[in-house]
Amino acid sequence: MTQYILINRIKVQNANAVAGFTWGFPAITHFLGFQHNLVRQLKGTAFENITLLNCGVFAHEHHVHTYGEYKDNFTQSKNPPYMKNAAVKDKTPSVIEEGKMNMTVSLLIGYTGNLGRSDEFFKWLKKRCFLQRLAGGTILDVGDIQAFDVDEGNKLLLLKRKLLPGFALIDRSEELAKHYDKSLANHGSAELMDAWLDFSLLKRKARPKSDLIKKHLLRYDKSNETVLMEKWEKHIASGPYNGEVPALFSSHFEQLENNKKNKALLAQWNQYLNPDSKTPADWGHLPKPSTGYLVPIMTGYKAISPLYKNSEIENTRDYETDVRFVESIHSVGEWRGVNRLKTAEHFAHCQWEYFYDDGWYLCRQFKKDVGTDSAPVDPNDEF
Q1: For the segment 163-174, what is each residue's pLDDT rounded down to a tens digit?
Q2: With 80 as the cut, is the pLDDT of residue 348 above it?
């Protein structure tokens, strides 16, 4: 796929900020639903020869309506449900909690077909955007709409400049699978939910204090022209504290004389080797299982019931479509800077599309190489 329509800088007010267990940005299903509705609107128009295939999401600005010390409480407005029964109209209804946000995003939509007089099509497309909602929010403004064939000359650079500054949402579900397999190998009772939380939680771990140890190693290096301090810093930076210490430090402190001068130093060293609940500690953040700006995301739905005829279920959206109950599916994504997208293939990797497989309704990313079949994205592809 090399032909794209860029709907640039869509400003949205009061979009849904909650997606399944996650919050902070709408689910990818909102954006594919927006594109799908545009596909439906094309039917019966002069532009029905144009096919919109998939959608890439680029975030430029976002502001979640929250407050509090950690910005984790949603700001609420009182929009109670309609109270039909007159007997309860005088009672104050409860507030239905909602998570809302303002955002500025760009959508990069792959297409096939002849745009013809593109100005007329872009004018029609812009009007349709204003008549729709994006992630439940109101579209306040739409920037310019342009078509790009990234195989032509400098069009790739022009597209990249249009999207800067911004971040593309990339699927990293393969990293979740790898981390889960690793967790199972280390702990047979590990669960997939725990592996997913490792990508979303901010975890910290204690390390026994070592300020006296560092001061001693600095003085020792200066007087003996050694590099023990450098090796100690590498030990600290090697990962979370696990009680293991390089042998050279153990032998070094064993040779120190146990006198009044070294009493506090050796006491701290012994506490570092064998900490207990009363040992003074420094707290440090644990790294996520993989590199990158990784975030938990919702990527679709899983069926939890058989497929019912529409007539068997009450209060459906229409009177024709069959109905099935589902629950949200969660995965891992990455916000990747547009500056790292350097080739046409990189932009193709950013495209999301629908995927269905026996009760799984998913949004996935695929490689789009001209003249080849679709293949899953390699999450380790460095770009």
Answers
A1: 999 999 999 999
A2: yes
Look at the chain and count its residues. Answer: 383
Domain ranges of the chain: 3-68+95-172+291-376, 173-203, 204-285
- Of 207, 289, 287, residue with least CA distance to 241: 207
* Host H or E run for residue 138: strand 137-142
pTM: 0.81
Q: What is the pLDDT of residue 116?
A: 76
Determine the Cα–Cα distance for residues 171 and 304; give it in Å rounded to an integer.
Answer: 24
pLDDT confidence of 371, banded at 50, 70, 90?
very low
Instruction: Answer whether residue 373 shows pLDDT above 50.
Output: no
pLDDT in tens, 184-231: 988 888 899 999 999 888 888 899 999 999 999 999 999 888 899 999
Q: How far is CA 75 from the centre of its chain?
A: 23
